[in-house]
Amino acid sequence: ALHTWSRIWEYPYVYYQLQQHRANGGLGNAHIVVDVGSGVTFFPFSVAKLGYNVCCVDVDGVCERDIQLASDAVPHDPGTVGFRLISQDRLPFMDGEVDVVYCISVLEHIPHFEHTIAEVVRILKDRGLFILTIDLDSGACCDIGVDRYYDMRRCLSKYFDLAKPEISTHPLDILVQNPSPALWNRLRFLA
Description:
Blueprint: H1 7-23, E1 32-36, H2 43-48, E2 53-58, H3 62-73, E3 80-85, E4 98-104, H4 113-123, E5 124-133, H5 146-159, H6 172-175, H7 181-190
Helix pairs in contact: 4-5
């Protein structure tokens, strides 16, 4: 999973933000963290090792079984890892129940992400933290292009203050189509 697409940057970025939040006392006594669109990966278990109680949420019910199997097999103390199923486009939490929500390359795949953003706002406590990463396709041939990106930014700005600078990372093989060996060598030399 770490070597898939942009995960090589996203997992470390989100982990660092959670680690900093924890170190700065951003949790108090409660520490419920939600992984929106979790699928089944190693990541919530790494987050639980920081002392968070992680609740994975997804629309795929198979994830529940697999998260439970992994939870029984993968050490993750002192935190916990659980699962709740998303049904009827509603995140399965009460209003203001959650301290932190993170969403790693999922929101851009949701056609009406505005509703999901509103749900994140609903479940977060006052002064809660939302950590978001997305894959942006500047060619607009995938799920989110430049126009929908700006729609997403406007929607997010209605509810959230940007706490950390926006970071863009561009893998060379995505920016340059069919790079020649000479171009690779020149770019390596310049780096």
